[in-house]
Amino acid sequence: MSQKELHVISGGKHTWSEIAKIAAQIHPYVTAIHIREKTKSLDEVFIGVQYLLEQGIPAKSLYVNGLPSIALALQTGGLQLPGTTPSLVIQDEFCRGIQRIGVSVHHADEAKWREKEGADYVMFGHIFATNSKQGVPPRGLEQLKQLVNHVNIPVIAIGGMTPARVKSVLDTGASGIAVMSGIWDAADPLGAVLAYHDELQ
Ligand SMILES: Cc1nc(C(=O)O)sc1CCOP(=O)(O)O
């Protein structure tokens, strides 16, 4: 079986030095560490990502959430765009210099539309109930399977992912998972990553 993807999403609760320390341990075992620091300014994220690079985190392991200019300028491994992103952004010449672009989606038709626009992968969630996404019911494995069958690009499942749930998620045909609290809230983030990694083999 080909290697499945493991995306780790930062949750805005750690300092850059804490992110660097955890990223240094986990990057060999993950596809990407997404820098999703919604409350920080563009300048703060730019300086933060630069700091992670200086600390030896490989650029290819870092995906920037929502800030194309940083992904382009620092040549990170990817860019994750929110579902509200206008079509123009992905199709812009500017984005061609970005290594890999993923878009968050919440419906199969949206995923197809993003595929046509040129997204390299889509992220779909939330699959299971999670404290990280409250107020909206989870979409569940059946919707994930339908979405996977609707597109030809990789689908990354997010929301409530635990190592014990990985097999049921992969059985839908999903290409991998994305995890926030399961890593950043863990007493041992590296141990948590290895547990997900084992299930994804
Ligand atoms: C950042 C994010 N996006 C989602 C979506 O549905 O698009 S769910 C989510 C949070 C996932 O956190 P956890 O791994 O702690 O459940």
TrEMBL record:
<protein>
    <submittedName>
        <fullName>Thiazole tautomerase</fullName>
        <ecNumber>5.3.99.10</ecNumber>
    </submittedName>
</protein>
<feature type="domain" description="Thiamine phosphate synthase/TenI">
    <location>
        <begin position="18"/>
        <end position="183"/>
    </location>
</feature>
<keyword id="KW-0784">Thiamine biosynthesis</keyword>
<dbReference type="Pfam" id="PF02581">
    <property type="entry name" value="TMP-TENI"/>
</dbReference>
<dbReference type="InterPro" id="IPR013785">
    <property type="entry name" value="Aldolase_TIM"/>
</dbReference>
<dbReference type="GO" id="GO:0016853">
    <property type="term" value="F:isomerase activity"/>
</dbReference>
<comment type="pathway">
    <text>Cofactor biosynthesis; thiamine diphosphate biosynthesis.</text>
</comment>
<keyword id="KW-0413">Isomerase</keyword>
<dbReference type="InterPro" id="IPR022998">
    <property type="entry name" value="ThiamineP_synth_TenI"/>
</dbReference>
<dbReference type="InterPro" id="IPR036206">
    <property type="entry name" value="ThiamineP_synth_sf"/>
</dbReference>
